Amino acid sequence: MRAHHRIALATATAAALTGGLLGLTAAPATAADSTTVAKADFNGDGIGDLATSAGDAYVNGRKGAGQVVVLYGTKTGVSGAKRTTLSQDTPGVPGGAETGDTFGSSLAYGDFNGDGYDDLAVGVPHEKLGSDTNAGAVTLLWGSENGLTGKSADLPDPAQSSHDYWGRVMAAGDYDGDGRTDLVVGASTSTLYLYKGGFSSTGTAPSRTTVNPPIQSGDDKYPFGPMNLTAGDVNGDGRTDLVVDGYENKTPYGWNTNYWLPGTANGLSTAAAKKLRSGIITGIGDINGDGYGDIVSGAMWDGGKLEDGTPIPDASTGGRVNITYGSVSGPNRTASINQDTGNVPGGSEKGDGFGSELDLGDINGDGYQDLVISSMFEDLGKVSEAGMVTVLYGSASGVNTTSRAQSFAQSSTGVPGGDEKADHFGADVKLDDVTGDGRADLLIGSDEDGGDGALTYLPSDGTRITTKGARFVNASAVGVSTSGTPRFTSIFAN
């Protein structure tokens, strides 16, 4: 099985650090806004849309060329009926579909050109340019009244010879607070590139600067650099901040360490960076309703700590989630939860992968962001790695782990399908308002049918997630070839 993008990179790096003890392969989440219901609207109809990928899909017979699928929201949610499926063979999209390009291996949305429609930044980290095998590429797909149509622009690598995998991680936000959506793009080194919002139709930005968080750089053998980027306003100043999941910049290497970089009038500040608890996947949302974004990081490998307190990645445990609450000065107090905490559903078991994916959104409209957490490697009965997801609700005191929690698997009453080996239900998860009612619905990706992939849609009924109106969308229903393992829904745009 081919590993999914973000956790795959983390797995390879952690395996290098621990002598190959980690034998897991897995999937990718970030958060778009820290205080409201997240919503990408590519066609401007006021209802949230979902952009996802099939990064390993065959395109015109080319293995792993990759596709991006947009499911447009309606009053009854998302389905395969109203959608757009694009690849590098789509008219207007730069380049051409080639074997192994993995078009869509990273995704980020925002109104980059200021026309009122959200646009989609698409990473193609394995794009070959000349003799540079993994040079990478980034494509900007422009939104319109018809959604994403293929009209697009190329965002060329400004330092191709300095790194590989251009576009392997991205995050959109208003980092300088000028009201325009900026874009951060990363590659295989620690250097990030910040593009100021206000892109032209040809993909030219008003300015570009570099940001160098204190994380380890990498190369083809050891894919260090940023593993994940997450945007959100943690200190409540109206500017977007950035959390960088990476590895501490030590010689010969450091453990997984995350950093908070605040947004300023001049962009992102590394001088004011703060070190955070470990985690491979991060989301930002205002869980306790105090106006500050809270940082939630999933540490699916939780092997305890070294003598100096440094967390040790270890796949033999069940995983945990670290929650660092925001404040006027940025990251503040931190709490950790796992499946043994309070009344969190299930129990912490070896290899569950609790925290392998997560996202935040307000399911019931009470002003507190709620949290969905994936345990994509959870064994259910005799079915190995069937996967399950947990929903925990926000409150004035933070995440509620004593009551109201929900859990869903494909064997849950009303959820389409059934538990199957290596389905990895929760390969990615997202809380997004795709019905236009102001409440976040639950979207769940999986490795259904041996890696073809599928989407499960569970709506909010206004107070909680319900299975009434649940829907299942497989790869074939959205025009993705099921040759090989396309991994439809392995990545959701944030």
Describe the structure.
This protein has 494 residues and is mainly beta. The chain is built from two helices and 29 strands. The strands form eight sheets. A four-stranded antiparallel β-sheet has the order 4-5-6-7, with no helix packed on it. The protein has a four-stranded antiparallel β-sheet with strand order 8-9-10-11, with no helix packed on it. A hairpin with an 8-residue loop joins strand 26 and strand 27 (441-446). The radius of gyration is 20 Å and the shape is globular. This is VCBS repeat-containing protein. InterPro entries: FG-GAP, Int_alpha_beta-p, Integrin_alpha, Integrin_alpha_N.
Key features?
Integrin_alpha_N, four-stranded antiparallel sheet, glycoprotein, 3% helix, 494 residues, 29 strands, VCBS repeat-containing protein, mainly beta, 27% strand, disordered N terminus, 2 helices, Integrin_alpha, globular
Alpha plus pi helix count: 2
Helix/sheet category:
mainly beta
Helix amount, in percent?
Answer: under 10%
Overall average residue pLDDT: 90
Globally, the shape reads globular
Query: In whole angstroms, how far apart are the ends?
Result: 25 Å
Strand order of the largest sheet: 4-5-6-7
Poorly predicted segments: 1-33, 304-311
* Beta strand %: 25-35%
Biggest sheet features: 4 strands, antiparallel
List how many beta strands DSSP finds: 29
Cα gyration radius (Å):
20 Å
Q: Quick summary of this structure?
A:
The protein is mainly beta. It has helices spanning 5-17, 448-451; strands spanning 50-54, 67-71, 83-86, 106-110, 119-123, 138-141, 152-154, 169-173, 182-186, 192-195, 208-211, 228-232, 241-247, 256-261, 263-264, 267-268, 274-276, 281-285, 294-299, 320-324, 334-337, 354-361, 370-375, 388-392, 406-408, 429-432, 441-446, 454-458, 471-474.
